[in-house]
Every structure is written in C-alpha cells, then in structure tokens.
C-alpha cells in the first residue's frame, strides 16, 4: 500500500446536482442506454503511461510531479508504481487499464534483464487483478522511446533493431495473453522518416508489413483470442509517418493482406494532427469494417501538437459515440484515456478529478448520441439527401456506361437543380442534444 491517494474515497455517482468535485454527475455504470449498461457501452480504461509513468516534463523543462515512485529506475519503484495504480483503479472503479512494457518495468542492461523485470512486475499485476474486477483492455510495446528506435522499429535500416523489436513484441503479446488482455496494440511512434535522402521507402513498408504479419501469425500460434489493433499516428515525431491516418492504415493493411486480421485503435488527438475530425476517422473505420477501439483525449487547438488533454468538448464526444453506436458499439475495444494532467496539476486529487470529469463527459456524450439515434433526425436527413439514388433509374445508371448516360442526358435535356445541404440546421439539431 502507498499513501499517495490517502483520504480519497472511491468515486460514486451522485447525480448532476452534486457539488462534489470527486463524484460522478453523469456516469452511472448501471444506467441502461439502448439496452446496455453504460459501463458496458463505454468500457473505460486508464492509461498507465500518462497516469503513472509521465513525470510532467516538456521540451523546455524537467519533471514537476515528483511522485513517490519517480526519480528511481528500479524494481522497487516499479512495484510502488503498480501499488499506486491499483489504488487508483479501486477509487475510480473503471473496468480496464492499458500499458506499454516500458511503463511498468525498468530498462535492464540487456534484453534478458528487461524481460525478467517485465515478467516480475506483470506477475504482481496478475496477483492484484485476482482480487479485483479490473481487467486489461490492451497491452503494447514501447518501440519509440529508447535511442535504439531513433530510426524506427519495424522500419529500421538495422536488422538487429527489427529483431529486438520483434522479440519485445513477442514478450508483450505473451504477457497480454496471460493477463487476459482483450486486444494487443501496435503503435508505430517512430515508423516514418525525416528525409527521403536516406530512406528506402518501399523496403521499409515491406518490412513493416512483414512485421505485422509475424504478429498475426504469433497471435494464432499462442491462441490469443483478442483483437490486433494498429493506431494511426501523423507527423509526430517523424516528418512523415507511414501510419498517418485511417485511410493510410487501411490501404497498408489491404496491401499486405491484413484487412481481415487487424483493426484500428483511433485517437482524437491524432485525428486532429492529421487534419481530420475524430468523427471522420471513426466513421471511415466503421464504414470499412476496421473499427476497433479509441484513445479518448483532446488537443489544444492553438498548440499544433499532441497535447493529450482530457476530453471536455461535448459536441465532439457526442458525435464520436454517435458513429460508434451506429457501427454496433465496441466489441473487444473500449474508451482508453490516453490523456495526461497539465504539468502544473500536481496533486493526487487532480489525477482523480481529471478522470472523473472525462468519464462524465463521455457519459453525457454517449447519452446524447443514443438520443440522436432514437430521434433519427440525422438518419432522416441523410435519407432525404440521397433519396434520388434509391430510384430504379439511378441504380440502373451505376451499371451503365458513359455513352448511355451521355445519350440520356442529351435526349432528356436534364438540368440538375441543387438542393440545400442544410448544414447549419443539422448543427443546430446536434446542439439540441448536447
């Protein structure tokens, strides 16, 4: 036990009028929405890296948090960090958590030592899970922080780095499987390039495709029933990322024959960096049958980089869940808070309050999305806008050819009459629910 969260009681639902900053106002796990408990819809997860591993530094300053387990890269500190993590899970009551290998264990002097450290800490995590209901949403490997990965992991020009990364992923998949993880994520933080002057793009893409095929093969070899996920990530830190956005990832997966084996873990902050909205990335993944899970956060729109703040934008969150619900909701995926405190938010209460507020925002967004689906206003607007395509004549045209269409237009004297897209009215409609 630690005393980091001393005197902070488990968070309870107290309703929208509660003045308690450490109580849920909108997230009631047992509230039924569209025939399912809210907890089962949202499937919240806490991110180990931002909540416990991050020390509050930025490009111009060092750590500000000074947590009891920080400042020492030792197994003792890793064990203390794990104790604090499960104390926070008990307080929040969220059903899942997520981690990278480097979040939970210190780096050893060799791969073998790092592996021993990893297995010892995951044994402790497994013991903690035995007496609790919290489960592992997904595990992943950190293939970007260490200097060995400065030129990528699967796309590195050095085959020894490829091998080291492959061995690391194998170990992380084993642990994820052993802990009952429901997904395994590959996040290509360094899979890109700084300049084409020293890059063989075709070779790197082929290596990345082969690496991912090895991951899928190993999943089946060990009998892992979870979902393999890849996470789109644009332009940070590399100048060009191979996994830029949903469309890029789908094209990559189809090229290397992985479209039936791999789905996508989507992050709001990454969508913004790619020049998209979160709802766009979700809707595209749903449309293409590739949606898997989400990392829920937000960016500061003035900063221009991935600030990983906790969500608080209700319209954005509501529209994200609208497309998730319309796509059938989560299966193995969930809502992972890949979000971190501001470096001036020093206290344990800040960490709890950030998650409480984010969970409430997501709960409100879910209920707004469900209300819009029940009302069918957006669905009706779409049906009306595209109703011309439901006629036999329009459908026949799709199976026709340019000459036949040309002849018909010339003979019938057709002149299209544009119809309003009603964007402002639809934006006003959404605002009724949020």
From TrEMBL:
Cited InterPro entries: Xyl_isomerase-like_sf, Xylose_isom_bac, Xylose_isomerase
Residues that coordinate or bind Mg(2+) 2: 267, 270, 306, 308
Free-text remark on how the cofactor is bound: Binds 2 magnesium ions per subunit.
The keyword ATP-binding is annotated on this UniProt entry: no
Alphabetical UniProt keywords: Carbohydrate metabolism, Cytoplasm, Isomerase, Magnesium, Metal-binding, Xylose metabolism
A biological process from GO: D-xylose metabolic process
Residues given in the record as Mg(2+) 1 binding sites: 231, 267, 295, 338
EC annotation from Swiss-Prot or TrEMBL: 5.3.1.5
Top-rank lineage group of the source organism: Bacteria
Active site: 100, 103
Compartmental location: Cytoplasm
One of the record's GO molecular function terms: magnesium ion binding
Cofactor: Mg(2+)
GO CC list: cytoplasm
Record flagged with keyword Cytoplasm: yes
Catalytic activity entry: alpha-D-xylose = alpha-D-xylulofuranose
Family according to the record: Belongs to the xylose isomerase family.
Assembly, per entry: Homotetramer.
Protein name in the entry: Xylose isomerase
């Amino acid at each position: 036990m630690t005393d980091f969260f001393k005197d902070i009681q488990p968070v309870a639902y107290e309703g929208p009028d509660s003045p308690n900053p450490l109580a849920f106002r909108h997230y009631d796990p047992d509230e039924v929405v569209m025939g399912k408990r809210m907890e089962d819809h949202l499937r919240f997860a806490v991110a180990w890296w931002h909540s416990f591993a991050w020390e509050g530094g930025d490009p111009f300053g060092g750590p500000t948090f000074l947590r009891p387990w920080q400042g020492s890269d030792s197994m003792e500190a890793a064990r203390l960090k794990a104790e604090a993590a499960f104390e926070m899970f008990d307080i929040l009551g969220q059903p899942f958590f997520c981690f990278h290998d480097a979040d939970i264990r210190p780096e050893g002097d060799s791969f073998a030592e790092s592996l021993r450290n990893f297995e010892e800490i995951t044994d402790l995590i497994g013991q903690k899970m035995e007496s609790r209901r919290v489960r592992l949403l997904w595990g992943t490997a950190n293939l970007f922080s260490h200097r060995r990965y400065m030129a990528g992991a699967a796309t590195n020009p050095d085959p020894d780095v490829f091998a080291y990364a492959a061995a690391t992923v194998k170990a992380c998949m084993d642990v994820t499987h052993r802990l009952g993880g429901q997904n395994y994520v590959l996040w290509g933080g360094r899979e890109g390039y700084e300049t084409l002057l020293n890059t063989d793009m075709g070779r790197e893409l082929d290596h990345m495709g082969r690496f991912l095929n090895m991951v899928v093969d190993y999943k089946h070899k060990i009998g892992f029933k979870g979902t393999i996920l890849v996470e789109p990530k644009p332009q940070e830190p590399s100048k060009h990322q191979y996994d830029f956005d949903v469309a890029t990832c789908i094209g990559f997966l189809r090229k290397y024959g992985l479209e039936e084996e791999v789905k996508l873990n989507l992050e709001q902050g990454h969508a913004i960096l790619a020049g998209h909205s979160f709802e766009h990335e979700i809707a595209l993944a749903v449309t293409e049958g590739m949606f898997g899970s989400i990392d829920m956060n937000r960016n500061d729109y003035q900063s221009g980089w991935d600030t990983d703040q906790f969500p608080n934008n209700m319209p954005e969150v509501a529209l994200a869940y609208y497309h998730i619900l319309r796509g059938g909701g989560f299966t193995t995926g969930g809502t992972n808070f890949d979000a971190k405190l501001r470096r001036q938010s020093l206290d344990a209460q800040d960490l709890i309050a950030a998650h409480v507020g984010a969970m409430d925002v997501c709960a409100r967004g879910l209920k707004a999305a469900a209300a819009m689906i029940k009302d069918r206003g957006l669905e009706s607007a779409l049906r009306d806008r595209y109703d011309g395509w439901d006629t036999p004549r329009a459908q026949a045209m799709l199976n026709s050819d340019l000459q036949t269409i040309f002849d018909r237009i010339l003979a019938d004297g057709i002149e299209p009459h544009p119809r309003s897209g009603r964007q402002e009215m639809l934006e006003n409609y959404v605002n009724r629910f949020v």
